[in-house]
Request: fold
Amino acid sequence: MARKESLLSLRAILVRRRDALRSALAGDLTLLKELRSESPGDVIDAAYDSAQDEISSQLAEVESRELAHIENALDRMKVGKYGVCEVCNGKIPMVRLHALPYATMCIDCQRESERSGGIRREVEERSEEAVGGELEL
Ligand SMILES: [Zn+2]
Reply:
């Protein structure tokens, strides 16, 4: 599959996940449970197990953090920077994006930032208009 097509499929995944997380944070777990059955074993899954299907404050925190990552990734798609490492500007390999669709750093830079104590970037509140725009790659 061409990189552009892969990116489009990742975008669809991110959008579905974003919608599911938004619903979950609003108290509706239906969408998230549907996604969960498709991709078992992720971080939300683990949070669910420990929360025993109740929305604990810990789960809400995980969800809202992931939601911020996803919205950031969708913003980057909108400006054509998705899949580009924000540290070294190199292309992030597709295999990494499939494993972590909202990755903003290549593996080398990720490791570097973890070794140096981690780069903590706050993702600001995103407006509704910031997502769902034209995908330009
Ligand atoms: Zn990099």
